[in-house]
Design a protein that fits this description.
single chain, 255 residues, alpha+beta, four-stranded mixed beta sheet, disordered N terminus
Amino acid sequence: MMDLASHDWRGMNLRFMKREIYQTLDQAISPIMAVVKLLGTWLSPYSCKVIWALKLKGIPYEYIEEDLSNKSPMLLQYNPVHKKIPVLVHDGKPICESTVILRYIEETWPQNPLLPIDPYERAVALFWIKYADDKNPLIPKLYRTTGEELEQAAKECSEILGTIEEHGLIEGKKFFGGDEINMVDIAFCIVAHWLGVFEEVAGIKVFEPHKFPKLNSWAQNFKSVPVIKENLPDADKIFAVLKRRRETLLAPKSN
């Protein structure tokens, strides 16, 4: 004879399991289904960092190009403190500052991780990301200065490159984290692509391949990753913009 009580319990249990599965799927999918927007500018390495992270994660998003000489009401609304790009807007909620955005992306969409799982390796990665955040703003000084200031900027830049070469990269590895691109590589993108443009605009050479062989190999590997390569701003166009900017910055001040 069929045990109706047991049968009902198994049925209820099955329905409960199905509901749990559907809820789990909904939780996994909902962050992706929510509207994602990115406010940025095409030549900014900080905007590119976020674009690459989203694409490496497979997250669909709407890109909104900002004119920083005429900032939009949307940018001023979403980043009223610094009024800067990039700004990620996820389901109506703004997140500012590129590294903060990358950490948010990593925690919201854990697929295709950009940080190591091992606590120590993650701590090392975060150390170098912090180093990049501290030192990257010094590198554009190359195209903004001249004379002794330019010499000092070149010296500072060379020291940064030397530190990365000696302590940041592992011999024989393609990327900072090993054989797969991670958030540290993205953090140093200004070295891989923009630095060469800064040098050309300023008429100076700092990043010499024979002085920094590991760093040079890393830069080539980084720019060869399809997602990076396909979403890298054109160097000639960056040069044209920065050349005009340099001329304006260094033009004699009229009385």
